[in-house]
C-alpha cells in the first residue's frame, strides 16, 4: 500500500511540473504572437506616420486625435444644393477624415509613449536633489523667497500664465514686467502669477522644490508654494507706455469716487502718471478727468459701451493733454482684469452632457476662452491639444466623458458621435474664414500665419477640396441628429459679444453676474490672437474654389432656415 502511494505521489509531482511547464510555454507563445501581430498592425498604420515619429501635442490621452491635426482628408462626395441633403447622410462615413485614426493601433502605442513621458515629467523632485537647483543668478529680478499660496485666495492676485512645457523664471518675470507688475511668483514648475504686493506668509526654502519645466536646475515654486521674484527693475518706461491702450472718450459717471475704488489728484497729470498709479493698484482701467486720476474696472455704472465723440474730449484738454468736465479719457493699463480668471472643475458630475461643436478654424478655442471665464468652469475636449493645455486649458487632459467640465469641444459629426451628447452649442463661421484659419493653424500653429510658399503649394487646393464639403456636412449632421441645439454664428458673437455670450451661458444653465461678463468682455481676446503681419487684401481662393464653396453655403443656409434657425449671416451668403 505504501509503495503504491509513493508511486502516485511521484507521478503527481511530475504531472505538476509538466503542467507548469506547459502553462509557461503557452503564455510565452501567446505573448510572442501578440507582439508579432502588434508589429504588423503598426507597420500597416505607419504608411501615413513614421513609427519613430514623436507624439504630437494634439493627440489625446484617451486615444483620439483632433481631426484638425490630421493630414488632409480625402474629398467627400459633393453635397446637393437643397434640403434633400438633410434626408440622407451628408458624407459617406467611409470617406470621413475624422474617425479612422481613433481606431488605429499606432495611436494607442503613441499614446502610451506620451503617457509614460508625462508621468515621468510629473515625478516630484527629491529633497536630496534640492541643493543642486539654483535660483538662477543670471535672472535680472531679485529672489525674495518661498511663500505659501492658496488656490482659493491667491497671494499674487494679478495676471496668471501657464506654460506646462517651457516655463522658466525669466519667462515669468518678463510676462509680469510687461504688464507693469512688481512681483512674479512661480508654482508647480509651470504656473506664473503676478502682483504688486509681496505675500505675507513666508515658507521654508526647501518647500519650493519644483523644477522649472523649461529650465533644468531652476526652482519654480512647489505645491501651494510660490518662488517670488521682484521684477520692478525690468520695467522700462517705454515698455509701460507701449502697453497702455486708449479706450476712448466717455461721459463721466455722476460720482467718480463711488464708481472707482482708487483715485489720485495730481497737478500736471499725464497719461503715464495715471497709468502707473493704477497699475500699482492692480486695476485695468485708468480714467482721467482734468487733474483727477481714477482706477477701476468696467462695471454696470461704467460699462464702456456708450462711447462719446472724441471731439468732446479733445475740445476740453488742458495743458497736460487730459480732458476736463463731464467727459473723461479712458485707458487700458497693462494689468489684467482678474475678476473672471478663476476657473475650476465641476464639483459634481453634470447631468447634461453638452458639446461645443464646430468645424476646425471656426473659433472653438476662442469660444472656450469666453465660456470658461464667464462661468468659472473648465471646458473639456474630445481630443488632446498640448499647446492649449500648456496655456491653461486644463480640461484638455480630463477625460472627455468625465462630466467634470461645463461643455466639451468637438469637431465630430455623424449620427453616433452626435447622439452621445444631450445638447450642443453649434458654432458656425464663414467657410472662407474657417478654411483659411485652419490652414494657418496646420502650418503655423494657433497664433501664426502660413507662408506664401504654403498658400502657393498644391496642398492648398487639395485642402479646400477636402475640407469645404466637411464644413457643410458638419452643420448638416448636427442639424439632423442633434437633440437640443443652440446655433451661434461666429460673426454675431464677435459683433455682439455680451448678448450672445449671455445666450450661451443661459443654455449651459449657469447664472453669471453682470460684472463678470464685463470682465470677460475686457479680456475678450485672451492670448489667442494671431501674431505677425497679416497680408492685406489677400485672396487665396480661385473662382473654381468659390463656386464650390458657395454651393455649400447655400445648402447650409437653406438647412438652417428649414429647421427654424436664423440663416447664415448675409455678409457671406452668395446672392
Structure in a nutshell:
This protein has helices spanning 2-45, 105-122, 169-178, 237-242, 256-259, 271-280, 310-314, 364-375, 386-390, 415-419, 431-444, 452-456, 459-481, 490-495, 497-507, 514-522, 543-562; strands at residues 142-148, 160-162, 183-187, 191-195, 211-212, 215-219, 225-230, 245-251, 262-265, 285-289, 292-296, 327-332, 354-358, 380-381, 408-410, 423-428, 485-489.
Provide structural commentary.
The structure is a single chain. Among the domains are: 91 residues; 81 residues, no CATH class; 198 residues, P-loop containing nucleotide triphosphate hydrolases (Rossmann fold, 3-Layer(aba) Sandwich). It is globular. The protein has 575 residues and is an alpha+beta fold. It has 17 helices and 17 strands. A hairpin with a 3-residue loop joins strand 3 and strand 4. The chain is 36% helix and 14% strand. The longest helix is centred in the N-terminal third of the chain and has 44 residues. Helix 13 packs parallel to helix 17. It has a 5-stranded antiparallel beta sheet.
